[in-house]
Each structure stands twice: as structure tokens, then as C-alpha cells.
From TrEMBL:
PANTHER family tied to this protein: SEGREGATION AND CONDENSATION PROTEIN B
NCBIfam families tied to this protein: SMC-Scp complex subunit ScpB
Organism this protein belongs to: Algivirga pacifica
Organism classification: Bacteria, Pseudomonadati, Bacteroidota, Cytophagia, Cytophagales
Keywords, comma-separated and alphabetical: Cell cycle, Cell division, Chromosome partition, Cytoplasm
SUPFAM superfamilies documented for this protein: Winged helix' DNA-binding domain
Pfam family, one: SMC_ScpB
Protein name: SMC-Scp complex subunit ScpB
Length: 205
């Protein structure tokens, strides 16, 4: 393995979230100087993707949120999910997850529009999603009162392991049984610590 590939691998490994090619390039320019360029970085990433895809590793490098990150492979999701669920009690309530689903599929959307769809107040749910950085303010509506508009964040993309909102499954792909595999049925809470967890989909209205 070349020195450049090792450096790229180290940066992706230590990054707390998805890291872009530009961020890798800027870091390597500072540490290695002119001996690196974007084309070589892309080749290094391609080499690493193949390395972890072919090897007997429990994790791989995937593209998400416009960059790259290490994630556990799909066949290990159940074990990792169980471990994280037992280790932490940081959860999204069913109400917050429903609100997040609407925001994901209808963004940018105002709180008033959210409440019209859900039929209940969303103040607390929106606040929790903002606190967890899964949702962010995208601007203001042109409607009367100029209400704030909400949309999903980069952390949302990184957490669910997708590269853009376009990668979300369509409502037709959602199955009722998917809901039954998520969270605690008794408490109605959803574990947000396991990556690649299914997101309940809202039917288009």
C-alpha cells in the first residue's frame, strides 16, 4: 500500500463524520505538500473501497453526505445495533421520528405545515431534532409572518448512510413490517445510535 493511500485511510478513519475529497486534499497539502493532487486522492479512495469490499473485514468505506466514512457492513447491523442499544439510551420518540420523516420528504417545510400533516403540535419534536443536529433551519418562507423553514442536515445524511436526499427510499418501497423492527414497541421509542436504521416513510399528500 502506498504512502498516500495510508494517509487517506488514516484521515477517513479518524474523521468523526463523513469527510470530503476537498477536506482530505487540504489536510494532505498541509502535511505532504505538492506531492498530492485530487486525482491521486480519488484513486486512493477507490483502492481503499476495493480493499475493504474484497477483504474479510466487518467494515467498509462508503460514500455518504457528499464524502466518505467507515461503516460496518450490512451483515453486522443486527449485532452492532444491539450493542449500541444496550450501551446508550439516547432515543428518538415515535413523535420525533414521525416529524423527522415528514421533514425529510417534504423539506423545506414550516412548523405550521408540519402540524397540519401530523395533526398535533410539533414544538417539542422539532426542538429535539434541532438539538441532535438531525434537522436545521433552511431559511424563511415567503408566507405571511415569514415562518422558519426546516430541512435535514448533513448529520442526517451521514447517520442514515446516504449521499443525498434523493437516495431516500420512495414511499412505495416502505413496508409495514419495517416499523415493527425498529425501537421498543412498549415505549414507542426509537434507538438513534445504530446507523443505517430504517426511516419510516410518509405517504405523499
Amino acid at each position: 500500500m502506498s504512502t498516500l493511500v495510508k494517509h487517506v485511510e488514516a484521515i477517513i478513519f479518524c474523521a468523526p463524520s463523513s469527510v470530503t475529497v476537498e477536506e482530505i486534499f487540504n489536510a494532505l497539502q498541509e502535511s505532504l505538500g505538492d506531492m498530492v493532487n485530487v486525482e491521486e486522492i480519488n484513486k486512493a479512495i477507490a483502492t481503499l473501497i476495493q480493499k475493504y469490499k474484497k477483504g474479510g473485514y466487518a467494515f467498509e468505506i462508503v460514500q455518504s453526505a457528499g464524502g466518505y466514512s467507515f461503516m460496518t457492513k450490512e451483515e453486522c447491523n443486527d449485532s452492532v445495533g444491539a450493542f449500541l442499544k444496550n450501551r446508550s439510551n439516547k432515543k428518538l420518540s415515535k413523535s420525533a421520528l414521525e416529524t423527522l420523516s415528514i421533514i425529510a420528504y417534504k423539506q423545506p417545510i414550516s412548523k405550521t405545515e408540519l402540524e397540519q400533516i401530523r395533526g398535533v403540535g410539533c414544538d417539542y419534536a422539532v426542538k429535539k431534532l434541532l438539538d441532535k443536529d438531525l434537522v436545521e433551519i433552511k431559511g424563511k418562507s415567503e408566507a405571511i409572518g415569514r415562518p422558519l423553514l426546516y430541512g435535514t442536515s448533513e448529520k442526517f445524511l451521514d447517520y442514515f448512510g446516504i449521499n443525498s436526499i434523493k437516495d431516500l427510499p420512495s414511499p412505495k418501497e416502505f413496508r409495514e413490517e419495517d416499523l415493527n423492527e425498529i425501537g421498543d414497541v412498549a415505549t414507542g421509542e426509537i434507538d438513534i445510535n445504530s446507523k443505517k436504521e430504517a426511516l419510516p416513510l410518509m405517504e405523499e399528500k
